[in-house]
Write a structure and sequence with these properties.
Elements (H helix, E strand, L loop, with lengths): L1 E7 L12 E10 L9 E10 L2 E12 L3 E2 L4 E2 L7 H26 L6 H9 L7 H11 L6 H17 L12 H10 L5 H20 L25 H13 L3 H16 L3 H4 L7 E2 L2 E4 L11 E3 L3 H14 L10 H14 L10 H14 L2 H8 L4 H5 L6 H20 L5
Antiparallel strand pairs: 1-2, 2-3, 3-4, 5-6, 7-8, 8-9
Helix pairs in contact: 3-4, 4-6, 8-10, 8-12, 12-13
Length: about 425
């Protein structure tokens, strides 16, 4: 994406007599001087003003082979690559902001230097744009947020940009959450996803209030409640059906989703950690990593996974080359694919990315009968979290009923003496 503007001052300006020409150009490019593993580079925006240039990162990276150098856009890596669409929206917003600053200086007949441009770009959100304020705040907080929270906040920001790209501080009213809610419900049926976006939105509205913006507390009185998951663990027979389907499946997108699901089933790994898997996590048959959820506590998972898990890991490693393992497609697309697979296999529960972890916990308790072993295997800090899982399947309920029948029912059914 490149735009070159060139003009001569025509207003009452001291530069007019000198015939000074003001020129500028904007381009989005990859920082190829520093490549990360797998050929991934930082995405930068470059601005040149009167032959002086400045560059800065836009806060994300992209593979070289999927970069459109001419247009300055991310090319999709696979069908329905939502991350590419989100990053392209961020690129448009950054370029639009830069053009707005250049245009402002042109129409006011003011000279602009590279240093002044950098200051203007960084303080752009102070002009009253809530979207720019939120984006700037997220980047400022990046080091204090864990990677998953940072990605969730960016996803909410992108969602707000898709809804109201020019949302101003003055446009925030008591009705704004209801309007945003209507927009979200047109795209999502999962109430927990909708609530997640609302909570992030509320966080930065409150932050704007703290920093002195004349913004009302728009979420005061707005009620939203997440709902507990209705999915249950798979039975061993259902697990066998899923594994058989994976072995026979020839659709690569489904195989990638199922590999991630089976990996979770065999290792109890959370989806947030699956998205972070690197090739060096599995060395000499041992899986060693720090879970994102308990990263602040420094808890390390060090285990020898089942042989089938190692096989799944190696298959993913061969397909991806060790780059962004288990990351694609995104969680939302993956859950839609799992749902269709579950319906096709006529499973008795909704298949989601969390079903694998829940099934893993259930099988551990069923076969070991040890809740504490399940706690350690799942990486829970508190056993009460482990106890929240529904470990009792129908077979165990029936077994409990049979025990009660033998212990109590026999006595009750004895014939009374004549």
């Amino acid at each position: 994406m490149k735009k070159r503007i060139r003009w001569t001052k025509v207003g009452p300006s001291p530069h007019r007599e000198r015939g000074e020409v003001f020129s500028s150009s904007i381009k989005v490019l990859l920082r190829t001087s520093r490549k990360y593993e797998g050929g991934i580079c930082d995405v930068q925006i470059r601005v040149i003003i009167n032959r002086e240039q400045t560059k800065w990162n836009l806060g994300f990276r992209w593979p070289i082979q999927y970069w459109d150098e001419t247009a300055g856009f991310c090319k999709p890596r696979f069908k329905n690559d939502t991350q590419a669409n989100d990053h392209n929206m961020e690129i448009r917003a950054a370029v639009g902001k830069a053009n707005d600053i250049l245009l402002h200086y042109r129409v006011t007949h003011r000279m602009l230097t590279v240093e002044q441009f950098k200051k203007e770009f960084q303080s752009y959100f102070n002009r009253g744009s809530f979207v720019d304020f939120m984006g700037n705040q997220i980047e400022q907080r990046r080091m204090e947020l864990n990677p998953g929270t940072y990605q969730n906040h960016r996803a909410a920001w992108v969602k707000i940009m898709g809804w109201r790209p020019n949302l101003m501080m003055t446009e925030l009213t008591k009705n704004t959450p209801n309007q945003f809610d209507t927009y979200l419900r047109q795209q999502y049926t999962n109430i927990n996803t909708i609530v997640k976006f609302h909570r992030v939105f509320r966080t930065y509205v409150n932050q704007a209030i703290k920093e002195g913006y004349n913004v009302p507390s728009i979420y005061k009185g707005f009620r939203f409640h997440s709902t507990p998951s209705k999915s249950r663990a798979l039975t061993e027979e259902e697990v066998a059906r899923v594994l058989d389907y994976y072995n026979q499946c020839t659709i690569e997108e489904q195989r990638r989703v199922l590999r991630r699901f089976i990996w979770s089933l065999l290792t109890s790994m959370r989806i947030s950690d699956q998205m972070r898997v690197e090739r060096n996590w599995l060395v000499d048959g041992r899986l060693v990593y720090v879970p994102q959820k308990t990263m602040k506590q420094g808890k390390v998972i060090n285990m020898r996974p089942p042989e089938t898990a190692v096989k799944i890991f190696n298959e993913e490693l061969q397909i991806t080359g060790g780059v962004e393992m288990f990351r694609h497609p995104c969680r939302q697309v993956g859950n839609r694919i799992l749902k269709r697979i579950g319906e096709k296999l006529e499973l008795g529960t909704k298949l989601t990315s969390h079903t694998g972890r829940k099934t893993c916990a259930t099988l551990v308790v069923k076969h070991l009968g040890d809740l504490h072993a399940a706690k350690e295997f799942l990486g829970h800090s508190d056993i009460r979290t482990t106890m929240a899982y529904d470990f009792v399947d129908e077979a165990r309920k029936q077994a409990a009923a049979n025990v009660l029948e033998m212990a109590v029912g026999k006595q009750l059914n004895k014939k009374a003496p004549k």
